[in-house]
Amino acid sequence: MTGVGWFMAIILGGIAGWIAEQIMKSDMGLIMNIILGIVGALVMNAILGMLGVIPPGGWIWQCIVAIAGACLLIFLWRMISGRRTAA
User: Fold this and answer.
1) CA-CA distances (angstroms) from residue 19 to 37, 75, 76?
2) Tens-digit pLDDT profile for residues 10-41
3) CB-based contacts of 64: which residues, under 8 Å, 6+ apart?
4) Could you give the CA distance from residue 31 to residue 74 in angstroms, rounded to a whole number?
5) From the CB of residue 68, how many other CB atoms can be counted at a distance below 10 Å?
6) pLDDT tens across 37-83, in order?
7) SS3 content of the chain, % helix, strand, coil (to 5)
8) pTM surpassing 0.85?
């Protein structure tokens, strides 16, 4: 997460992971939400970087990028594992 410290990265990761969990209707838990949010932000920033798109700095934009990345990771996990929902 560009431009934020480690502490804020953990907080933003947790928020982004929780929002992605709600959007994708999955049940991951707090620690997995934080991991999904941080890894999702890293993955989505890498994808955007390869496409030549640089999102504006700031924690709001990084949170949006992290949410999109976390949703992408949940989607990919479901494709690989074959699960639709976590009911």
Assistant:
1) 9, 14, 17
2) 788 888 889 998 999 888 788 888 888 888 88
3) 55
4) 15
5) 20
6) 888 888 888 898 899 887 777 778 888 888 999 999 989 888 888 76
7) 70, 0, 30
8) no
